[in-house]
Design goal:
Layout: H1 8-37, H2 43-70, H3 82-107, H4 117-141
Helix pairs in contact: 1-2, 1-4, 2-3, 3-4
């Protein structure tokens, strides 16, 4: 007998975390590339542009995987087309991205001036944004339609 009951929602959350983990790798890779590509810009502008670039690319890849794998069983029952789900997901991701960006900008000046401080601030922002992203997408974007909903 397992100590943990693997309910559908627990499996969904684990899948979301796996997708999120891959999204963090995508986000951080794009963030790092953008920081190098935007080297001539003022530091704060460069850092924020890099955060946004990482966010946009990881948002799109995460949607595609989450739509198929994490909430694949709800795609039809949510009563939304692919485009509607993508728009809803992106709106939620924007809110989560705002949380990420706010946390990044709040934390960055508090960290010591060492080479990886922007990466640490970005990771903390990603973690906070992830919480918002899962809760709202699970309850709104990919909600399970109950009898009588149309």
């Amino acid at each position: 007998m397992s100590l943990v009951q693997w309910t559908p929602e627990r499996r969904r959350f684990v899948r979301f975390c796996v997708v999120g983990g891959s999204g963090v790798l995508v986000n951080m890779a794009i963030f790092s590339i953008a920081r190098i590509a935007l080297d001539g810009m003022p530091e704060l502008v460069r850092e924020n542009c890099a955060v946004l670039a990482g966010f946009v690319v990881s948002c799109l890849t995460n949607f595609l995987i989450n739509d198929r794998w994490t909430w694949g069983d709800r795609r039809e029952s949510a009563g939304r087309t692919f485009l509607q789900r993508m728009i809803a997901y992106c709106l939620v991701a924007l809110a989560a991205g705002a949380v990420q960006l706010a946390a990044f900008n709040a934390l960055l000046p508090l960290l010591p001036s060492w080479a990886w401080r922007a990466h640490v601030a970005n990771l903390v922002g990603i973690a906070l944004g992830t919480i918002v992203n899962f809760i709202v997408n699970n309850r709104w974007t990919f909600r399970a339609q109950v009898e009588g909903d149309h």
